User: Fold this.
Amino acid sequence: MNVLVIDVGGTSVKLWHTAHEEHLKFDSGKELTPEQMVEEARDLAGDWEWEGIALGLPCRVSNGRPVEDPQNLGPGWVGFNYSSAFGCPVRIMNDAAMQALGSYDGGRMLFLSLGTGVGSAYIAHHLILSLDLGRISIGKQMLYELLGEAGFEKLGPKKYQAVVNDVVPSLKTALMADYVVLGGGSVKKIEQLPDSVRRGHNRTVVEGGRKLWEELPDPTEQQESVWKIF
Assistant:
């Protein structure tokens, strides 16, 4: 299945395709509305063909629909009809969760996206849980203030590395994760990763978008609740 994967971030929107290696992007920001995003994406990806869209949004998503406006974007994301606007089926997922889905290698995995803020998700035995670990208080600051782009600019490379070495293993231990995957633009600024931590890469969001369509049930449809102990 040909899927257009749209990864909406606080500073840019990236477009990927399951049948193409290259990606496209345009600027986002606090004024970006869903109408503008759709128009820009359709114009930019006009030469590509797709049967469905996997849309990753930097906000809370429930039952395949955003339930709040993204913090770093404009208004109007809740209740917007994405399928109608794009003229094709659209499946929506939290952006960090979609990257996590593409990075998953089994077991219990914690995913952290270090970008404008800190996105986070946890996957264990095919259970996908979106998190908001960026709002955890570390001393007098929030985690997103330390590990996001602003944190790197404020702390500098050495102190930022020290925060990563301290915080990431602690989160891994607290959540009983087998391993941690770090994604996002700030990962390339980290010289040495702690044990059981590996770097993600941009193409994982494409794999996550593919899985969202080909391996996961439709998130907008009611699913049977099955208790699992793991």
About this structure: The first strand starts at residue 3 and ends at 8. Residues 157-174 form the longest helix (18 residues).
